[in-house]
Amino acid sequence: MEEYAPLASLSLTHVHYNPADRISYICAWLALVPQGLCIVYATLIWSNREVEILLMFAGQMACEALNWGLKRYIKEERPRAMHGKGYGMPSSHAQFVTFFSLTLAMFLLFRHVPHPTETHTPFTFFQRLLLSILAMISAAAVASSRVYLNYHTPKQVLVGAAAGAVFAFLWFAFTTCLRRAGWVDWGLDTYLARQLRMRDLVVEEDLVDSGWGRWEERRMKRRALEGARKTR
């Protein structure tokens, strides 16, 4: 009988949980949030070409690189009941979602200044505050799930959250300096950025309203032309 090399498991979306525990099952799905957010990042960058989203994703990847380095520097093992691979300090999930939620909150509260249009009324500051709180509560749920599933100790999750928070503040300050110094505008004027149709509209308008006014104007003109043809 022909022998084959033992197969390996791609653990990117492989989560251990207790099938008899409904909370454990929910936590298993929460563990997939970072992967889902990466898909959201890629989709928004490709479809909207917004430089703000690209900067946020660059910070997210830099935060992941920091976590990779910290784990190999600290070299603290995961809980004994855990069957996963790699070191556990700090928790990459906690660091990922903390960076995301805080960066999103700071953008919504301090950088995002949407203006109302004829077809859309943007969220008020209070609504953006509620959305920010919801994002942070969701991040806390993802981080807590890592402890519940025995992938990390509470200390590893707390350190991961602290690392993500510090990096989020530093990255937001860094991108603010880039904007004030004119580097973002310079980057958008480069040949590559113009060929990729990169833009910087989400700071002053909502993603849901992007292009909607132009679409409404074109649709009304088309209907007016069709109505004029029918009356002839």
What does it look like?
65% of the residues lie in helices and 0% in strands. Helix 3 (51-74) packs antiparallel against helix 6 (154-180), helix 4 (92-111) packs antiparallel against helix 5 and helix 5 runs antiparallel to helix 6. It has helices spanning 22-30, 33-48, 51-74, 92-111, 125-148, 154-180, 183-188, 191-195, 212-230. The chain is mainly alpha-helical and 232 residues long. The chain starts with 21 loop residues before the first helix and ends with a helix. The longest helix is centred in the last third of the chain and has 27 residues, at 154-180. It has one domain (17-230).
What is the fold's blueprint, element by element?
Elements: H1 22-30, H2 33-48, H3 51-74, H4 92-111, H5 125-148, H6 154-180, H7 183-188, H8 191-195, H9 212-230
Helix pairs in contact: 1-5, 2-3, 3-4, 3-6, 4-5, 4-6, 5-6
Rounded to an integer in angstroms, the radius of gyration calculated over CA atoms is 23 Å
Number of helices: 9
How far do the termini sit from each other? Answer: 83 Å
What percent strand? under 5%
What is the domain tally?
A: 1
Subcellular location: Endoplasmic reticulum membrane
Function: Required for efficient N-glycosylation. Necessary for maintaining optimal levels of dolichol-linked oligosaccharides. Hydrolyzes dolichyl pyrophosphate at a very high rate and dolichyl monophosphate at a much lower rate. Does not act on phosphatidate.
Catalytic activity: a di-trans,poly-cis-dolichyl diphosphate + H2O = a di-trans,poly-cis-dolichyl phosphate + phosphate + H(+)
Organism: Lepidopterella palustris CBS 459.81
